[in-house]
Specification:
By secondary structure, the protein is mainly β. The chain has one domain. Helix content is 0%, strand content 49%. It is built from no helices and nine strands. It has a five-stranded antiparallel sheet, with no helix packed on it. The model has no long low-confidence stretch (mean pLDDT 90).
Length: 103
């Protein structure tokens, strides 16, 4: 039975972020970004690694101080934990090396 959850990541940098890189302890599927499912024509992001433990979401816009919410589905009864040290935001490929607020 799959598990469903969501994570919220806050951009604590002083720059806008346009990519997010997520690392989980096990495989997950992304079921939505800010409430929009990847199958929805309104979904304008580029999703890489869906169904794996390493997920990339490009073509996003997270201004400084703003958040992004990612809905995920794990294959087990509990949702895989996120690896915060391997989860980060980038701007045009440049890693924004600030601690993220993940909830």
């Amino acid at each position: 039975m799959p598990s469903f959850d969501f994570i919220t990541v806050k951009n604590r940098s002083k720059k806008r972020a346009n990519d997010i890189h997520l690392s989980f302890e096990a495989q997950v599927d992304v079921t939505g970004v800010n409430g929009v499912a990847p199958s929805d024509p309104k979904f304008k992001h580029k999703l890489d690694g869906d169904g794996s433990a390493e997920i990339g979401i490009a073509k996003i816009n997270i201004p400084p101080g703003s958040t992004i919410t990612i809905n995920i589905r794990g294959s087990g009864k509990t949702t895989p934990s996120i690896n915060p040290e391997d989860t980060y935001l980038t701007l045009n490929g440049e890693r924004l090396n600030l601690p993220l607020t993940i909830s």
